[in-house]
């Protein structure tokens, strides 16, 4: 019997990847119900045209999520810390509070709908690692160090609180950032440069499509309920990322490694939070990469993309960005 999977954020990066993975699956074990705040959007219409059942649902509207989970065997839940918000929404609650409230809404709705296997897309809570550290700025009135990590990690316990059969899927930095926020940029002398404060430590990365494929594999594994599955597609230093980008683009890309203190002073929103995040990646390097054992991830998802494989599929986008 085909099992129905309700996918939160179906028009976003992670949810969309799972929808596509289900639709491309030759086994046909699952059907997909795509949850979106705007079923009339172009992205939602594309999902419907591809065969998904598209329904309107919002993590800030518990009744809509409960209805969307009705009859589903499984659910994939992801919250969007980076969602565009109005000034009024920003003033009403922090983004971390938003994620916590939305996760609790999803947990209650899943419990009430009798969802049998939920995947919660989460991250490590950095606060135990940074405990007592004055050199790492606290945010959100002292509550968090890296709010978009810590709130997700804090929310893990909510799914246990409500008795939801849950697998905790820990993701990492997206390779896709190299064609968006972290795309190679030309410095003053015209050299293409990538910049992040990791020194010589390796940065774990993953293709968003592999988040979807890994989630699909987890849905086939009820033995993973209650477990934490941490994924990545590669662990590379900044110099290794730059070398791979150079090969793909056909032009030298250089890695610049500012200190985290310098990075936190950069003139863009959330520079402090992102600096703290990179500091966690760098200082917790051994445990973070060790938890994302590529051999084990590939056993779960045999089509796992390395950074080189991902680059081959995005060479044209990168070349266009480089001009």
Summarize the helices and strands and which ones pair or pack.
Blueprint: E1 3-7, H1 13-24, E2 30-36, H2 42-49, E3 53-56, H3 62-69, E4 74-77, H4 87-92, H5 95-113, E5 117-122, H6 127-130, H7 147-161, E6 166-170, E7 173-174, E8 185-186, E9 192-195, E10 203-206, H8 208-219, E11 228-230, E12 234-236, H9 238-249, E13 253-256, H10 260-264, H11 271-283, H12 285-291, H13 294-300, H14 307-313, H15 315-322
Parallel strand pairs: 1-2, 1-4, 2-3, 4-5, 5-6, 6-11, 7-10, 9-13
Antiparallel strand pairs: 8-9, 10-12
Helix pairs in contact: 1-8, 3-5, 5-7, 9-14
Number of helices: 15
What's the order of the H and E elements?
A: EHEHEHEHHEHHEEEEEHEEHEHHHHHH
Q: Which stretches of 5+ consecutive residues score pLDDT under 50?
A: none
Strand-pairing-aware structural class: alpha/beta
- Summed over residues and divided by their number, the pLDDT gives a mean of 96
Strand content: 15-25%
Whole-angstrom Rg: 20 Å
Per CATH, the architecture of the domain at 1-170 is 3-Layer(aba) Sandwich
Dominant shape? globular
Distance between the termini: 50 Å
Biggest pleated-sheet summary: 7 strands, parallel
Widest beta sheet: strand line-up: 3-2-1-4-5-6-11
Helix content: 40-55%
Let me know the number of strands.
13
- What's the CATH H-level homologous superfamily of the domain at 1-170? NAD(P)-binding Rossmann-like Domain
Keywords: NADP
Protein name: NmrA/HSCARG family protein
Family: Belongs to the NmrA-type oxidoreductase family.
InterPro entries: NAD(P)-bd_dom_sf (IPR036291), NmrA-like (IPR008030), NmrA-like_oxidored (IPR051164)
